[in-house]
TrEMBL record:
Keyword Amino-acid biosynthesis among record annotations: yes
Keywords from the named record: Amino-acid biosynthesis, Aminotransferase, Histidine biosynthesis, Pyridoxal phosphate, Transferase
Gene from which the chain derives: hisC
Lineage, top ranks: Archaea, Methanobacteriati, Methanobacteriota, Stenosarchaea group, Halobacteria
PROSITE patterns: AA_TRANSFER_CLASS_2 (PS00599)
Native source species: Halorhabdus tiamatea SARL4B
Family stated for the protein in its record: Belongs to the class-II pyridoxal-phosphate-dependent aminotransferase family. Histidinol-phosphate aminotransferase subfamily.
Name of the protein in question: Histidinol-phosphate aminotransferase
InterPro entries registered for this protein in UniProt: Aminotrans_II_pyridoxalP_BS, Aminotransferase_I/II_large, HisP_aminotrans, HistidinolP_aminotransfase, PyrdxlP-dep_Trfase, PyrdxlP-dep_Trfase_major, PyrdxlP-dep_Trfase_small
Length: 355
């Protein structure tokens, strides 16, 4: 007996961790720094860590109360109704929920190219078709209304990413609204704001006050440093009051994840520290790298290095793990996460030597 035909499914290949890279190179893991997965350079929110310890003995209980409490807290944070908050197992889980709520088999979704792999993967998992709109290096990889709408053909969903992974480009509220205005009444514009805390641009959540054709995806993985817990959420139109209960996996956000999320929301000091560090690190990359960099609203910078595979490999051999963007369709670029000050300086020195 075989599975259904999965040949059309893309495999998500996460960046290799320090331990496995150390084994590959035969070195002490302490000699390596990992700047390939856009993780929080300062680690998890300390308040979240305390909450995890405090609630570890409640793991025998389903997270009904904590789930509701986190939904209420996020609703207050974003000034929306609690029913508009769809908690999920990571931001990717929130994308799955939106696809589950929106797509009939064969419906099409428009995504940028290059793009974060999981947008298209989620569509295909839910028997949808993936269409793309190209981003161009010569205009800063902008997701402009003209570029998006030139490719639009009535798709059920349109993905925008702000800041965009892997390029770092952002989309303004005016541009998002222009796209929503000029797409069909049955098209949902999904704005992935996984890196939203790292720039000062207003969130597309503001548009939900007057629109029912925009949804926003957010995560606790980046600014709050909870990537290992897998906690994210979608903020959906107010009219979708009962849809979440119909498509939600039972308690997809765990008790520990919800408790950690509640604590992290109160840890403004940690968020301020990492956003300040990211701002410094981005500027250092832009100023000190002997290669072209691109303006970024995320906790990473895209760098044009010529032969990304070679630069990534030789940087790794020198102890600095960066992301070869060939898998994004950018074989001449690497993506470098904003590290600590020490890590950022070492990354610049290493990349400059290799280039």
């Amino acid at each position: 007996m075989d599975t259904r035909d999965l040949s059309g499914q893309t495999i998500y290949r996460a960046g290799r961790g320090i331990e496995e890279t150390a084994r590959e190179l035969g070195v002490d893991p302490a000699e390596l720094i990992k700047l390939s997965s856009n993780e929080n350079a300062l680690g998890p929110s300390p308040k979240a860590v305390d909450a995890i310890r405090e609630h570890a003995e409640t793991l025998h209980s389903y997270p009904k109360a904590s789930h509701a409490d986190l939904g209420d807290a996020l609703a207050e944070r974003w000034d929306v109704d609690p029913a508009q908050i769809w908690l999920a197992n990571g931001g990717d889980g929130a994308m799955d929920y939106l696809a589950r709520a929106m797509l009939e088999p064969g419906d099409a979704v428009l995504v940028p190219d290059p793009d974060f792999t999981y947008h298209a993967m989620s569509v295909r998992y839910h028997h949808g078709e993936v269409h793309t709109y190209p981003l161009a290096e010569d205009d800063g990889f902008a997701q402009s209304p003209d570029r998006v709408l030139a490719a639009y053909d009535g798709e059920r969903m349109v993905y925008l990413t702000s800041p965009h992974n892997p390029t770092g480009s952002t989309v303004s509220l005016d541009e998002i609204e222009a796209i929503a205005e000029r797409t069909g009444e049955e098209t949902l514009v999904v704005v992935d704001e996984a890196y939203g805390e790292f720039n000062d641009a207003p969130s597309a959540v503001e548009l939900l006050e007057n629109r029912d054709d925009v949804a926003v995806v957010r995560t606790f993985s980046k600014a709050y440093g909870l990537a290992g817990l897998r906690l994210g959420y979608a903020i959906t139109p107010r009219a979708w009051a009962d849809a979440y209960d119909r498509i939600n996996t039972p308690f997809a956000a765990s008790e520990i994840a919800c408790r950690a999320g509640l604590a992290a929301l109160e840890d403004d000091e940690h968020v301020e520290a990492i956003t300040d560090l990211v701002e410094w690190s981005r500027e250092y990359y832009h100023d000190e790298l002997d290669a072209k960099t691109y303006e970024s609203g995320g906790n990473f910078v895209l760098v044009a290095v010529g032969d990304a595979s070679r630069v990534a490999q030789e940087s790794k051999e020198r102890g600095v793990i960066v992301r070869d963007c060939s898998s994004f369709g950018l074989p001449e670029h690497i993506r470098v996460t904003c590290g600590t000050r020490e890590e950022t300086k070492r990354a610049v020195e290493t990349i400059n030597e290799v280039c």
